[in-house]
Amino acid sequence: MLKIRFLRTGKKHQPYFKIVVTDKDNPPRGGNFKAEVGSFKPKSKEAEFDEEAIKHWLEEGAQPSGRVHNLLVEEGIIEEEKKAVHASGEPEETEEEKETEDSEEKVEEETDENEEEQKEKEEVEEGEETENEKAEENEEEEDDEEEPKDE
Hints:
Blueprint: E1 2-11, E2 14-23, E3 35-41, E4 46-49, H1 51-59, E5 63-64, H2 66-75, H3 95-146
Parallel strand pairs: 1-5
Antiparallel strand pairs: 1-2, 2-3, 3-4
């Protein structure tokens, strides 16, 4: 599968990216890419694209990376919505996912509370059982004391 992605060039603290088409599994280091279709300077936000080449590779089935996709949307080369791209590398959750997580957490909290209540009830019942056993033992002892001993 082909990818349209960045190839970092430039000096330290002066990033410059070539936008290249490459195989998804192989990094584009050392000129090992199919075609160069643009460039991007993130500090000045300058971007240059070869629109015809990009459209050709998109027709061939190449998939742009998230950031490249967003640049192409900004430039009007492709007509789609931007993708959520974050520094953490994790996509942002949709509201539906957040709602389901919230409801799952509530269910978990309720089950935790129910479990705690059950444990408390069991402890109380165990305490009552031990008190009942003690009372029975005391009654037996009293019965033993009241019975006259045969001598």
